[in-house]
Fold these 4 entries.
Entry 1:
Amino acid sequence: MISRVGALLLVFVVWPLAAAGPDFRLQQIGKGVWAAIVNDAGLAGGNAGFVIGDDGVAVIDTFQDPRPARALLSEIRKLTPLPVRFVVNTHYHLDHVNGNDVFAAAGATIVAHRNVRAWMRTENIKMLDPPVTPEKKARVQSLPLPSLVYDSHVDLYLGSRRINVRYYPGHTGGDSVVSVPDAQVVFCGDMLWKQHVPNLIDASTGAWVESLDAMQKDYGASTWVPGHGDVANGQDVLVFRRYLADLRAGVRREQGAGKSGAALADALMPGLRSSYGKWGFFNDYAKVGIEQTEQELLGKKRFPPISSER
Ligand SMILES: [Zn+2]
């Protein structure tokens, strides 16, 4: 019989926690399944994660910079000698793909929705922080592209371990949600933000709300890894859905009252601030998100052009 202390030690051995430096921390969320939760003030940008299977590893997203990507690879190396066989880029934004070269050099096949391949080296120019130097542009224009693309869904196998990659519209029009059915874990990329105001630069918020409803149905009782913020649960998905729905309803209401532009944003900001002002990125994305949603609801928003390669 194992003593209580012994049992706790055993749990600790089975579920190790690893410190991974200033840019991100690793959190084990299932057998062989790890979330890499970023520090917003560090270099990593967007959350990542990885799944260790029977014969290899799949990595979900590669951060905003090759330095934390190399740190992630070395954390994986501490846990398993198995090769990194796949990287899934959940979408094209730079904070999720700018470590691709680290994993491509390690032999991984990069997998993504078809539009990610079309947009990674072009649309990402607009994601660069100013000043946009020739060096930064050249880096974007040489990002390793996905070499395996899909349209609606694709399954990856790490030996007997299945990983489902599914397209959901809303955040960019090329977003993948990656689930590990045997661990009831789902990596949402930027289809889910936990207590962080989302970047709506490419968003179709109406489709996004519908996708969140579909995801709740599809992944119900899972552990949810958002693209930004801590590991989440089903309640967090509802809270995030409410942000998008509140924003849409508010923009519609003010448009109905004849407001537009700065006046419309000024009318909505106090309400958003009182409900969501403590969220990360509020000052970065709340106001511009109102403007982007106004354009969307007017039918005037510019979206990245859908890939024509078939
Ligand atoms: Zn992101």
Entry 2:
Amino acid sequence: MKVLLIGANGQLGSDLKKVFAAAGDGVVALTHAEMDVRVSDRVAVVVGDVQPQVVLNTSAFHKVEECEKRPELAFEVNASAAMNLAQVCQKAGATLVHFSTDYVFGGYAHHTPFEETDRPAPQNVYGVSKLAGEYLIASNTDRYFVLRVCGLYGIAGSSGKGGNFVENMLKKALAGEPVRVVEDQVLTPTYTVDLAKAARQLIHTGKFGLYHLSSEGECSWYEFTRYIFECAGIKANLTGCKTGDFPSPVKRPAYSVLSKAKLRRVGLSIPSWQDALPRYLQERAQRDATAAPSVKVTA
Ligand SMILES: NC(=O)c1ccc[n+]([C@@H]2O[C@H](COP(=O)([O-])OP(=O)(O)OC[C@H]3O[C@@H](n4cnc5c(N)ncnc54)[C@H](OP(=O)(O)O)[C@@H]3O)[C@@H](O)[C@H]2O)c1
């Protein structure tokens, strides 16, 4: 399968590249510096040159606080560029795989996992712009997978957010800092390796459409942090707190767990967040073990 990957050195992009290449796919991987999705003519030329069967679009403007201040940019990257990609893919006969977010929900109280058919109600500019992207894709191509994902962490760390949650928690604990984490936001943290593998399997079903794709299970950020320290064998000064303890101009969903019932209906599954985290920590340890030791040059 010939694949064009956009946002290749991002957190998810890095694992998509590894997973698809390891499975034998020909991957043309482009970073932001090599192709800006907002430049529609360039996108059309690149797709015309590469002639991919599948385009994986991980690009996004997803710093949620920044999106509130710069809604035009949020809509440019997350909605208009997604629409252009859909049009270009439709013309080229390529399948577009686009990543959306659990933040399309949150505007009304909910306590069971959201289905794809549940009414979206984004609470912030980021969520609205991503939802607009979903609609613009669906109305411009019939060969698409829109995958709503949630709480990503992967070895590359999110370039858009500066690291990932697991790394930030480990860093604080190892520095001996007290760690306060919200216990009233419930979600599903998701390992990008598991996500990349499941996305590839889903593409192979040929069953286009909108899917929820995050790890199985649910937890609060506090519960996730407690599990991080437990698995890493770290004694940390961890306490739970409420969202209101960290005043923010951005509203975030109190509950944004995504149901995988539709994924199961097409015969697929994804591991739980409890299963994924130890594997992430293992990957991280292997990376550190194989990192080249710094060489001290003496005269
Ligand atoms: N991270 C999460 O927890 C989370 C949760 C829900 C949904 N998502 C969605 O999942 C996807 C992947 O997230 P991620 O964590 O892998 O983010 P990431 O690490 O920030 O990756 C995004 C990639 O897109 C690139 N990019 C940004 N603007 C671009 C543009 N205009 N043209 C071309 N490339 C551009 C970035 O490059 P530069 O860094 O060089 O700009 C980066 O390589 C995004 O669509 C995001 O909305 C993420």
Entry 3:
Amino acid sequence: MAFSDFYGNAEAVHRLREMLARDRLPHAIILAGARGAGKYKLAQMTAKALNCLKRPLRDGLPDFCGACSNCLRIGQADDLAARFAEAVSAREELREADKRDTRLLIQTHPDVLIIPPDPPQVMIKVGQVRRVIETIYFRPAEGREAVYIFTDSAFMKEAANSLLKILEEPPSFATMFLLTENPGELLPTIRSRAITLTLAALPTAEIESCLARLRPEWNTKQRALVARLSGGAVGAAIAFDLAAYTAAREDALALLDTAVHPQDHSKLFKITETYRAGEGKDKTEELIRTLYWLLEDLLFLKSGTPELVRNTDIAADLGRMAQALDFAWIAAASDRLGEVEAGMRRNLLRALSLDAFVTALEQG
Ligand SMILES: [Zn+2]
């Protein structure tokens, strides 16, 4: 592993490495970018480069070896989702009284602390930032520079104010990474005390060629589809669950077909029956997102911009469907889908709400 394993955004990576070379890493770095753009990966790579015992130079700039004891221990947190799940279940096993006082933190190296949003609110809490304050003013124990990675910018108010206090008097031997999909979510006073590096969306062609290497089991059509659905975020593309998407899309197309072509409802009920309460929540969310994408594609086809279509592999079918529809119908369908989504948040019966969505749109 090395910085060269980071896909795309070469300029942002280069800037970080130049700062490393000059030993002038800012106290706080906001890494902005879409979900799956590689923010966490880049923060982890920088934490390794800061503390690597070998710190090789590549292309004249600092890199990391990935094999020394510091790199290896920091690397144990590379799989953030797995470490997060472990931390959550470890807390679940505590006694009720201890549970309340235990804040969620991930630490696989004494000088690198990862602060994820704490469930159930899924926000960064003041107790977590307090742990940062308790340690950040001590020199690193084993590494050269302590690294703190906040994996999300959803801070509770008091937590944001505590973070601001650190930023007003930061120690010289620590670097904080603030990862965010939307920098506007951070206090302006926090933003002004940090530098922001943005990981931009990658061009579709670049993602496709990346997938050709990393997901060779997908064919060209599938890679083209996933590249368009991932919105330029390479991590999202690599981790894309194509089987789940294809299943959701089959259901979504059947729902739309029922609405567009008058027919009896047995097929519809058979599908919506599988979106019952309980385990159906994630499945329903996937279905709704897929429906939005299909409606958007229909809109692109109707407005003569087929190059924007995401579901390129079924463009011909969508083209035929688009011919049978008008703009008003597509707009009404999007509105109604918004109602289904809102209903889900209020825990309305999902199967019924999907039936109502389709029957309200039926033409005839
Ligand atoms: Zn190393």
Entry 4:
Amino acid sequence: MIESFKSKFVWEAKMKKYAMPIIMLVVFETVAITLWLTKNKLFYLFNFSYIGLSISLGVFLYIKKYKYARRIVQLLVGLYMLVYLGLICNENMQIEGFWYYLFTGVFEAATIHYAVAKIFGPLIFGRGWCGYACWTAMVLDFLPYKVPKEPRRKIGWIRYITFAASLIFVAALFLAHVGSLERIMFWAFIIGNILYYTTGIILAFSFKDNRAFCKYICPITVFLKPMSYFSLIRLKCDKEKCISCGKCKRVCPMNVDVTDNSRKRKNGTECILCMECVKNCPKDAL
Ligand code: SF4
Ligand code: SF4
Ligand code: SF4
């Protein structure tokens, strides 16, 4: 009797521990099956199942305390989107691709991607996209300044300029009735990525901060920041355990004041859920 009670207890503890990767898998499978059946395209089943499996694997490895869990997800998802979807399937998943599909009135490729990962998804998983899937950050995170070496600058307004520029660029193509738009979108994807990587790398070295591009230039943050403000999944600090050592803030790549539990905490909408603060907290307070 005692033995069976013990094994039930161990089983329940294990289930609780692995709940997150299971939940992630179920959420992505639900999206995959729903889109497959409603759009009648097997691609969606493959696409979202692959992304869901990659993310669940990453969360599982994180629970197992594998040091490179996040980097593995970044590479699995980022390379898939950049190389397979972008270069092989010619899908522009950048912001211009989103405007393009939006103007054509088609709920396909980039519009679905933006709806799931960057507009409505952040209401649940915040800026998880930025921590685990973005192919721009996948490269930037290899650079040497994982923790910013200089204070944050007040130039975040640049993101609104890049956001407006991408919208004006695509709107102008439509207004001018330019032909071969699909081809233009493919080249916009190539040139856009070259520009993103070049600017990102130059900024990282100039500001001694791998994520400078994310903080000041990236147009997608115009969607990501306000939506992630309401995120269901967010880090909280257990004030009973916290000894105010400040280590969490020192290791944070995004300068988030994670010990403040309010939604208005400093740089709260910048959190990319990278878990560096959690890993480094000496009191398990996060
Ligand atoms: S802020 Fe932009 S570039 Fe940075 S990780 Fe997020 S989507 Fe990618
Ligand atoms: S690292 Fe942990 S104990 Fe130190 S300030 Fe942050 S939450 Fe508190
Ligand atoms: S270190 Fe913590 S607060 Fe900072 S971005 Fe990563 S998860 Fe968010």
